Amino acid sequence: MKLPRYWAKGSAGKVMEDFACWGWSDISVEEAQERGEQRAASVAKIIRSGLRPDHYLYGDRPMREKIIEEWEREDATTYAAVTLNAYGCQILNTASVMFVDVDLPMIPAWDTIKHKLAGILGNKDPSPRERQESEALAKIEEMIRIDRQCGIRAYRTAAGLRYLFTHAHADPTAESTLRAMEELGADPLYMRLCKIQECFRARLNPKPWRCGIKPLRITYPWEDETAEQSALHWIAAHEKKAQEYATCSLIGQFGSKTMDTEIARVVEFHDSATKAESGLTLA
The pTM is what? Predict the structure, then answer.
């Protein structure tokens, strides 16, 4: 997993002194600073040539997130970590426990109204959202039909569905993993992020704007103690408000229920943190 412990800005020198890039390191701030300067110099060279530096700015950079908690194996390698993302939500990062988030298309308001009117007249047909979910879940049922050892937990989210593979570990950078995610309808940006970060990701608490508060506007690493205190104050307010909501709702376990201790710990933690069986409103 790419979850750097240290971050520092490096500038491109006197010629472009206002231009800077973030560098990162698992060893020290000094090494992060050096990498930042190297990246800034590379991007400055691209800019001077008249090209767009998109790849250098975004394509190879891990997420700049505060590490809250890490879980290690006996060999001291990290297999899961909780981080704080840019807008203030906690993210569960897993090295090989596979999460897949699937966003379902927005239902046109008129379709929802028509279904409700039909219901008043006695029509018991599934709602447009229920039809979407059934079509999506049919894909994991087909996976399980092909491989009887396959086990997948399915959850409902505010925007769609989330799958958690429980029967085996997966490599987030492998083409076979990315193909499976694509077949299930995963967001291409999510797939790309998993590959860059070399891990799977699952949001644990509600998005702030869905529970009535503004996103965190203070970037990590905190600029100074005042910024840190402001960030901690926001986090406390978000956590308090988030108690009223769930992040996802368990639909059920499909296929095999067998899982190893590492996956079992991820499942237990995820379901508790997201309030997956609380019945609360999704956010």
Answer: 0.87
